[in-house]
Design a protein that fits this description.
The chain starts with a helix and ends with a strand. It has three helices and 14 strands. It has two domains: about 40 residues, no CATH class; about 190 residues, Photosystem II, cytochrome c-550 precursor (Porin), CATH 2.40.160.30. By secondary structure, the protein is mainly beta.
Amino acid sequence: MRFRPLLALVLALCLTLVTACSGGAEAKDRANLTYDDIHNTGLANSCPTLPDSARGSIALASGGKYQLRELCLHPAEVYVKGEPANKRQEAQFVETKILTRFTTSLDQVYGDLNVQGDNLSFKELGGIDFQLVTVLLPGGEEVPFVFSSKELDATADGAAITTSTDFSGSYRVPSYRTSNFLDPKARGLTTGYSSAVGLVPAGDDFTAETVKRYVDGTGTMSLSITKVDGNTGEFAGVFTAVQPSDTDMGTKEPVAVKITGELYGRLEQV
């Protein structure tokens, strides 16, 4: 009788392990999951993947009309370029902790893929192509930024999608704040006060914090394809993006942010 609690504990641990393993297998194929399977689990923030054995290729006809669809970019690591210790050193990217939960991935992104000889060009058209993300530096400072793939214009060499295809190009980074946002002193671009209540701005130091502007940024992104399923048109790989952080509507200087993570997509002929 005295071993019954210990036996119950062992059975509970075994059941937990079995459930965890089965959940991991389902996470690879979100198409088979219901809303209840995904809700509050974080699986919606993960990208589909392909097995390591997917080492095929997808042939493309020159002049053909194609689209890259269901593009998913899941940030795994984020780095922020910090200030150098002295003037003789160069600024280095510092690893951060991602504070934003479950809403960091870009998903269902799509765009046109043009084939001209041995050159591929991709132009992003839409999808869930931006997310607001905040990361934490080792010293405790929080850095917000807009992870984006808006208007991505990328090119690659080759006349097919293979496991060595690498796209690279630039994209637009929208402002983290919009025109109606008010800062802690109720100052905004189209609403609120033009200056802090009770204070009249005088000099550049005050103007910099008072005058709000909608400021777009420009980032660069590389998409490296490492897995291809020629039968389904799916591909997977990794991505690296470097872009500016939030500027608080033009009132502070941005810092460089580097995002790396997993990539998934599907090729479709149109």
